[in-house]
Amino acid sequence: MRIYFLILPFLILIGAERTFAQTKGDSSEPITEFIYSISETVFANPFRKEETEIRKRIHESNTAEVRELRIHLKNNLRTLGLTEKDIQSKNKNLSMFEESLETLPSLGGFLWKGESGILYQWGDWSDFYEDGYSRDKLRLEGQIPSFPIDQGTIYFFVRNPPGSLPAEFGFLGWESHFYAFGDEGSLRYTNDFHLDPSERLGDFRKAFDSIRKKIPGSQILTANDLTIFIVPGESKPIYYIFLFLRFFLIGWTILLAFYIIRISLSPPKNHLPEDRPRLS
Question: Is 236 within 8 Å of 14 (Cβ atoms)?
C-alpha cells in the first residue's frame, strides 16, 4: 500500500508537467531526449532555455509558412499551365496567374529564373539583388526558398502583409522580447507590438547596438533566412513555481527509484510461524 502513495503524486506531477511546461518535439531516442530536457529545464540558465525555444518556434513557423506557399505556387502553376510563351506574350493566362498571386497575402515576391536569366518577376526584389537593381544577380541565391520546374527555377519569399502585426509567440514564464527579420529586411515575428510593423532590418540593427549597451545578454541569432534579435527580460514568478515543481518531480523520482530498488533487492521474508519446542 505504501508504494501506491509514492506513485500517485509522481503520476500527478507528471501530468501537471506535461500540461503546463513547454512541450518538446518527438524524438527517436526518448531516453536521450529526457536527459537533455532535464538539463535544459532544470539546470540550464532560464534565458538560454528561452533562446532555444525562440529559435525552435520561429524556425518551425517559418518552415510551415514557406512550405504552404510552395504548395500554393506549385498548384497555381500546374493548374494554369503557365509557360515562357505566356509570359512573353502577356496573355490572359499570365493575368490569371498574377491574380492568383494577389490572393496569397504572405507572398512577398515571385521570381522565375531560366537559363537565359530572369523570365518573370512579381513583387519587390530589390533587396535581393547584389547591387540593388541587377535582375540577373540574386544575392544569397542558395538561401532563398525555391523549387525547380521544367523551364527553370522558381524563387519566392515570405513577407507579412503591409500594416499587419507580425505573428505573436506566447512564452510561459519569461518577459524577453524578440524580433525576427526576413532576408529582405521586413519584420516577420515579434512579441513586442510597440514596434512599428514597417521597421526595417537595417534601422533596427543600428538601434540594437544601443540596446546591447543598456541590457546585457542581448544577442543576435540566425535561423536560415531570418535574423533574430533577443532582448532578455526578468523571469516571472510562475517560472520559479514550475522550476520548484520540476526539482520536486526529479527528487520524487529518485526517491521512488531507490524505494523500488530496495524492495526488489531485499530478501523475501519468511512469514511461516516459527517452530515451537514441544512440551513433554
Answer: no
